[in-house]
Specification:
By secondary structure, the protein is an all-alpha fold. The protein has a domain of about 30 residues. Helices cover about 80% and strands about 0% of the residues. The chain has 3 helices and no strands. The relative contact order is 0.04. Keywords: Membrane, Transmembrane, Transmembrane helix.
């Protein structure tokens, strides 16, 4: 075996690789179907994520509203019949109304 035979063998191998890569790069109907299925799953996943975000946001808003409502229900109401303090009575008697 001489150097020329080795070189010829390498050329044949590289041509075989080129042909193999060309066949691998060519799209087939099976590849197209797989791509469509992948894209459909991605679209479904995106829609699910969007719905999930909406649900979480709505749940958070309702929980916040319930918490605020609960605090407002239990918050003591201001009293309307508060007694006047002694200091207020002293100022009023010393300075008169509208001091």
């Amino acid at each position: 075996m001489n150097i020329n035979d080795d070189h010829a063998s390498e050329i044949d191998d590289s041509q075989d690789l080129d042909a193999l890569f060309a066949r691998a790069a060519a799209l087939t109907p099976a590849d197209q179907g797989a791509a469509e299925r992948f894209l459909a799953r991605q679209q479904t996943r995106r829609q699910h994520t969007a719905r999930q975000r909406w649900r979480v946001g709505l749940s958070s808003a309702l929980a916040s509203a319930a918490a605020v409502g609960g605090l407002l229900v239990f918050w003591p109401a201001p009293r309307q019949d508060l007694p006047t303090s002694e200091a207020y009575s002293a100022y009023q008697s010393a300075l008169g109304d509208g001091w």
